[in-house]
Design a protein that fits this description.
single chain, about 120 residues, alpha+beta, Beta-Lactamase, five-stranded antiparallel sheet, 5 strands, about 25% helix
């Protein structure tokens, strides 16, 4: 599978996906994330959208976005308003996205060695 096919697979996945760096900057979101969040990323790689740790209201989510870079995978349930952790979301958008109360957060490594990104898949 080539890189373009992988990107299309992520883009057409039916659940919102966000890929982020160790600096908590989003480098890729899929169409479901953009649609749900009513966002349109023209240049996703240079986007300044970030995970703001101080805005995370759920302890298990706060731990997961940090510990994912230690190589841990998390399946979270009972999340309350997980989209509130992203910069640029209004309160109205956050409340509309409250139905996403589950998430899987897992690491992605470069060449099976150093973990370079975390991935969040939101589910309802």
């Amino acid at each position: 599978m080539n890189d373009k096919s992988k990107e299309q697979l992520i883009d057409f996945f039916p659940y919102p996906i966000a890929i982020f760096t160790k600096q908590y900057t989003l480098v890729k979101v899929n169409r479901a994330f953009s649609t749900e969040a009513k966002l349109r990323f023209k240049n996703q790689e240079k986007s300044t959208m970030r995970i703001l740790q101080y805005k995370i209201k759920d302890t298990q989510l706060a731990v997961a976005v940090v510990k994912v870079f230690d190589g841990n995978t998390f399946f979270l349930e009972g999340l309350n308003n997980p989209f509130s952790m992203f910069s640029g979301f209004s309160q109205q958008i956050e409340s509309q996205l409250d139905r996403f109360d589950r998430a899987v957060i897992f690491p992605v490594s470069k060449d099976n060695s150093k973990i370079t990104h975390g991935v969040i898949v939101f589910m309802s």
